[in-house]
Amino acid sequence: MTETAKLAKVVFQPSGRRGTFPVGMHLLDAARSLGVYVESVCGGRGICGRCQISVSEGSFAKENLTSSADHLEAATDAETRYATLRNLAAGRRLSCQAKILGDLVVDVPTDAQTNRQVVRKRAEARHIEPDSAVSLVSVTIAEPDMETPRGDIDRLREALADKTGHAGLNVDPVLLPRVQALLRQGNWTVTAAIHQDEGAPPTLVALWPGRKETVYGIAVDIGSTTIAAHLCDLENGRTVSSAGTSNPQIRFGEDLMSRVSYVQMNPSRLPDLTRAVREAVNSLIGKLVGDVGADRTDVLDATFVGNPVMHHLFLGIDPVELGGAPFALAASDAMVLNARDFELELNPGARVYMLPCIAGHVGADAAAATLAESPYKLDEITLLVDVGTNAEIVLGSSERLLAASSPTGPAFEGAEISSGQRAAPGAIERLRIDKDTLEPRFKVIGVDEWSHEDGFAEKIDSVGVTGICGSGIIEAVAEMFLAGLITEDGVIDGAMAARTARVQPSGRTFSYLIASDPVEISILQTDIRAIQLAKGALYAGIRLLQDKLGTDKLDRIRLAGAFGSYIDPKYAMVLGLIPDCPLDGVSGVGNAAGTGARMALLNRGFRREIEQTVRDIEKIETALEPKFQEHFVNAMALPNKVDPFPNLRAAVALPERKAVEAADAGGGGRRRRRRG
């Protein structure tokens, strides 16, 4: 092997940054060269232990690599000493000591990230009238005596039946060994938690001595990138605490199909993906109950939503069938299950309600968002889009509702973009380009000031400028189009180099330089193409649903999810990410899936409502529709090759179509491409 061939590909998760590095390089140096900040305060001597990482093992088809812990050099003396003195967790390495020997997928644990992802999934304000599946009932029963040889549990059931009318009350077997002790501890007065949902008999699921006033439920939205959880008081319906975290499954693949592929190629690793997400949920539960001074045993009900792949992986179901036609779900209906069967650290009698999935790639998260926005109750035609690695689309009104998915991929979340990253401190999230000078100004997550404002230079050192996240990429490409830097076909106009040094040759194409300190951040031609492919797939899916509905008109567009809420509607429309609509009719609705999950947690009526709605929704499989390709090709243009966008043109001055000369940066001949 020649010296030049001794290179290895390394992918860092959850940031998604990747690069090729010489064999023998320390992982910490590789991370820093990519702007992946791993904390280290000892100068790389293996003393502080803050630079810990772990290796995700297996074959990763999308990355075209096989990752193994053996692709790191053996532990150094310093690393062995630290592990002995400080108890280094199994599978962890110190990145300042570990040298690269081969291809790797590296997971940077949350506790080692100084540049943590921003989880933007707060609980949206919504009053939800409580009608929980769990009710608290306090009763006092007589002490046992020799003349009435009835079991304590049976007498408790009778007392509860007299008070509630639940004649056929069951007792969860988990309670059987504890009832007698609890009755005596409470001096024969106890508070019972009874779970009753449609289709299941009322069941005694928890018991406390004396009187208890408050129990909780948890609503969880498992996204492919982030997990959000909300702790709710089941008695009054209030959301008392919310928390979020990165989905640790990301180390097995950035997007859904990558994870399906990982399981397909590494079937023995399926339990690892399931364990990773359940552990993350348990960590969130601990934080939530800690926030309000409660105990895990105070949580008696839970609702979960997620896309079909996340839904299956959480349940421990192999998702491989979702990887190809006919995209068969193992289970799609709503389910009530025992929380203890999923290693959830809640009350042993707690229940889990899984919201229904709509179709093979339109999941329970889309169902929950539909419940939250309720387009089926409105006369106006509403488009509801959850923009993620797989966009979920719901279109219609009270007359008719359709749903589909579209494979956008991870470009909107920073992956497949040369300087892309997820939303974290240091990421460019907003960008404007002066149409006269062609100079950019931008806003970075973690700094309130824009780059041209006073105070930015002093504060930026605290986070750096490390990359560009999804909302920033959307605005960058749209602003480049509005400034005339790129054509409607998405080609960077090399002739603009005569006006600004920021347009630079890059191979046979050109790039636009946004920033160069401390790392260079440019928009490359390949970045624009990745965005075009992603937005083209989404737009084509929406247009197919419009065709099925028989209308070009949209009254309302609602952008759901964390990413959708941070997209500026104007730029989303300039890009052609969404169809034409009055701009004041477009808005983000935050974590609508989380809102729907809370609604189903707190009120049984909403469970029945979304179950019926999912049965009524017409499911469209975009992959089988012959017009998808035609819509997709037209949607590659900015904003679209054929659709006129009258509402957008009335609000925004779109540039004139122009021909552009694409020069070979290496000095070759020129070729002219004309646009109509």
Sheet with the most strands: spatial strand order: 14-13-12-15-17-16
Whole-number average pLDDT? 89
Strand content: 15-25%
Determine the structural class based on helices, strands and strand pairing.
Answer: alpha/beta
Biggest beta sheet attributes: 6 strands, mixed
Number of helices: 17
Record field, number of beta strands: 31
Principal-axes shape call: globular
Proportion in helices: 25-40%
The rounded Rg comes to 28 Å
Distance between the termini: 52 Å
Q: Which regions have little confidence, pLDDT < 50, spanning 5+ residues?
A: 662-676
What does this structure look like?
There is one protein chain. By secondary structure, this protein is α/β, with parallel strands linked by helices. It has 17 helices and 31 strands. The protein has a six-stranded mixed sheet, with helices on both faces. A six-stranded mixed sheet has the order 28-27-18-19-20-29, sandwiched between helices. It is globular. It starts with 6 loop residues before the first strand and ends with a strand.
Task: Report a brief summary of the structure.
This protein has 676 residues and is of the alpha/beta class.
Provide tags for this entry.
six-stranded mixed beta sheet, disordered C terminus, single chain, globular
Detail the topology: elements first, then pairings.
Elements lengths: L6 E7 L4 E5 L4 H7 L18 E4 L2 E3 L4 E3 L9 H10 L5 E3 L9 E4 L26 E7 L11 H13 L5 E2 L7 H7 L3 E7 L7 E7 L6 E7 L3 E8 L5 E8 L9 H10 L4 H22 L7 E8 L1 H8 L19 E4 L12 E4 L9 H10 L8 E5 L4 E6 L4 E6 L20 E7 L6 E5 L11 H4 L7 E2 L1 H13 L20 E4 L2 E7 L5 E4 H25 L6 E5 H6 L2 H7 L10 E3 L3 H11 L1 H13 L1 E2 L8 H8 L10 H6 L8 E4 L6 E4 L3
Parallel strand pairs: 1-7, 9-11, 12-15, 15-17, 18-27, 20-29, 21-23, 27-28
Antiparallel strand pairs: 1-2, 3-6, 3-7, 4-5, 8-10, 10-11, 12-13, 13-14, 16-17, 18-19, 19-20, 21-22, 24-25, 25-26, 30-31
